[in-house]
Automatic annotation (TrEMBL), chain A:
Matches recorded under PANTHER family: BLR3430 PROTEIN
Alphabetized Pfam families for the sequence: OB_ChsH2_C (PF01796), zf-ChsH2 (PF12172)
Domain ChsH2 rubredoxin-like zinc ribbon residues, every copy: 19-55
The protein's name: Zn-ribbon domain-containing OB-fold protein
Phylogenetic classification of the source organism: Bacteria, Pseudomonadati, Thermodesulfobacteriota, Desulfomonilia, Desulfomonilales
Domain ChsH2 C-terminal OB-fold: 56-121
TrEMBL record, chain B:
Protein name, UniProt field: propanoyl-CoA C-acyltransferase
GO biological process: lipid transport
Keywords assigned by UniProt, alphabetized: Lipid transport, Lipid-binding, Transferase, Transport
Known EC number: 2.3.1.176
Organism: Desulfomonile tiedjei
Enzyme class: transferase
Domain Thiolase N-terminal: 21-220
Highest taxon of the lineage: Bacteria
Pfam family, one: Thiolase_N
Domain Thiolase C-terminal intervals: 247-382
Xref: InterPro entries: Thiolase, Thiolase-like, Thiolase_C_2, Thiolase_CS, Thiolase_N
NCBIfam families listed in its UniProt record: PRK06064.1
GO MF annotation, one: lipid binding
């Protein structure tokens, strides 16, 4: 069976700054200039106060693992060669959460509340994905 | 609020691969429900057709079903909330009748998951979560529920053995349900074999895909009393939603949509969790049933494991849950699942559940979740 390509991010004008930054190995998130809350995932307007006065800011890239799982079988077929891999929800210092992968360690070493920091993995010539690795002290 | 009753229920056998098309598959449940209600096609004023469209080759299936089942020229339309589609269909049909627009409404749920290959089905199932911000990281349904299992383990000390006990119960009842797809006896050792899908969930923590259909006939109070000897009344309907994206979840030890839907259903019915005599919950994964115990108030948060360890959710316990085998053993044909759960509860309340019968059941509950806690439907039924 032909292995399908991994799904690529869906990019539009509101999502593009996130993916452009990732390609430069920077993690950016939105912040509302009116209610001052951080926003993830990127939106056309602030989901808290509906203001469209939102800006892009650099995230620290540091956070902790909130929950995780190690995928060991039955993954989407494009990811079969990556098994075992870690899918995790990471809580960033800025207070927002994102779903990503934890890499750079054995999958069995991942724990809840583990400190992690952003790292970048090239998906193809067009896209780089922000992932997380155990934090270096 | 006007009273609305379920006056007929039907379900096809849930099977791995149904040999016919969605037409014949739907007809199996339809025929049983119509026979059960003792009515003819011309007595149905409108129909609500439910499935998850990503598995269907046929577009706009409501029109097809109305024609095939002989329901033209009455109104029909399609309702979807993935795995809870037919509970959303129940809610819609209730509103159609309570509003006075129609007197007798059919809710038809179906899914032929074998319509497409297993691999393709897996890919399409994933599209029921956030495709823009999560799919690039290799997400899939078991992984999403595994995140919640990890959350429950972490917060409450729940173990893989606790989840295995839920599957053990499920297999016990799957064996006595002649319409279940999985009818094998399972031992705790077999369930605990370390064949992981997404840790801590193993093969037997996950329900199987199945083909199947379900059909409910609903009627106004006047019609129900006229047509039906033992109507089962809809006492409470609760529905709630929660973020599709995991970025929006502040808890991984329960499902917010289920908690809120339960509160709304209990309030409408004027009952408490302790009043429920028998329940059907959405155990697409063992962890989902564990969370349901707590989200529905059958146990305090964190006390779900105690409930299954002490066998209180078995038929003889204080709150029997999924004594028809649940999704884990009966099977989970997405669009048909809610209707099948409702059928089980209706049979229980009528005293027609055969070997699965819970004695003296007067109030029953159905908990049916769409996606990974995107849509929560909780429905309460009663004999009065």
């Amino acid at each position: 069976m032909e292995i399908p390509k991994k799904p690529v991010p869906i990019v539009n004008d509101w999502a593009r700054p996130f993916w452009d930054a990732a390609k430069e190995q920077r993690l950016v998130i939105q912040k509302c200039k009116d209610c001052e809350k951080h926003i993830f995932y990127p939106r056309i307007a602030c989901p808290h106060c509906s203001s469209d006065n939102v800006e892009w800011v650099d995230a620290s890239g540091k956070g902790t693992v909130y929950s995780y799982t190690v995928v060991e079988s039955n993954s989407p077929s494009a990811f079969l060669k990556d098994i075992p891999y870690v899918v995790a929800v990471v809580r960033l210092e800025e207070g927002v959460q994102m779903l990503s992968n934890v890499v750079g360690c054995e999958p069995g070493e991942v724990r809840c509340d583990m400190p992690v920091e952003v790292t970048f993995e090239k998906l193809d010539d067009e896209f780089t994905l922000p992932k997380f690795k155990p934090a270096t002290r | 609020m006007p009273k609305v009753a379920v006056i007929g229920v039907g379900q096809s056998a849930f099977v791995r691969a149904y040999p016919g098309s969605i037409r014949e598959l739907a007809f199996e449940a339809y025929r049983e429900a119509m026979h059960d209600a003792g009515i003819k096609a011309e007595q149905i004023d409108a129909s609500v057709v439910c499935s998850a469209p990503e598995y269907d080759k046929q577009r706009t299936p409501a029109g097809l079903m109305a024609e095939y089942l002989g329901l033209n020229p009455q109104p029909t339309f399609y309702v979807e909330s993935v795995c809870s589609s037919s509970s959303s269909g129940l809610r819609t049909a209730y509103a159609l009748i309570a509003s006075g627009l129609h007197d007798v409404v059919m809710v038809l749920g179906f899914q032929k998951m074998s319509e497409i290959s297993s691999a393709e089905s897996q890919e399409r199932m994933g599209r029921g979560a956030d495709i823009q911000w999560e799919a690039p990281f290799g997400t899939m349904m078991p992984a999403y529920y595994a995140l919640h299992a990890r959350g429950h383990f972490e917060k409450y000390g729940t173990t893989e053995e606790d989840l295995a006990l839920i599957r053990l119960k499920s297999s016990t009842y799957g064996l006595i349900n002649e319409k279940a797809v999985f009818r094998k006896e399972l031992s705790l050792e077999k369930i605990l074999e370390p064949k992981f899908i997404a840790t801590p969930l193993k093969v037997f923590d996950c329900c199987a895909n199945a083909d199947g259909s379900s059909c409910l006939i609903l009627a106004s109070e006047e019609k129900a009393k006229d047509l039906c000897r033992k109507p089962v009344w809809i006492k409470g309907l609760g529905m709630a939603t929660a973020p599709i994206n995991m970025a929006g979840r502040d808890s991984f030890s329960g499902l917010k949509c289920a908690q809120l839907a339960a509160k709304r259903a209990y309030d409408m019915a004027g009952i408490t969790p302790q009043d429920v005599d028998v329940a059907e919950v959405h155990d697409c994964f063992t962890i989902a049933e564990m969370m349901a115990y707590e989200d529905l108030g059958f146990a305090e948060p964190g006390q779900g494991p105690q409930l299954i360890r002490s066998k209180e959710t078995y038929k003889e316990g204080k709150i029997p849950v999924n004594v028809d085998g649940g999704l884990l053993s009966k099977g989970h044909p997405i669009g048909a699942t809610g209707g099948s759960q409702i059928r089980t509860i209706v049979l229980q309340l009528r005293g027609d559940a055969g070997p699965m019968q819970v004695p003296e059941a007067k109030i029953g509950l159905v908990h049916n979740i769409g996606g990974v806690g995107i849509y929560g439907n909780v429905s309460v039924f009663g004999t009065e």
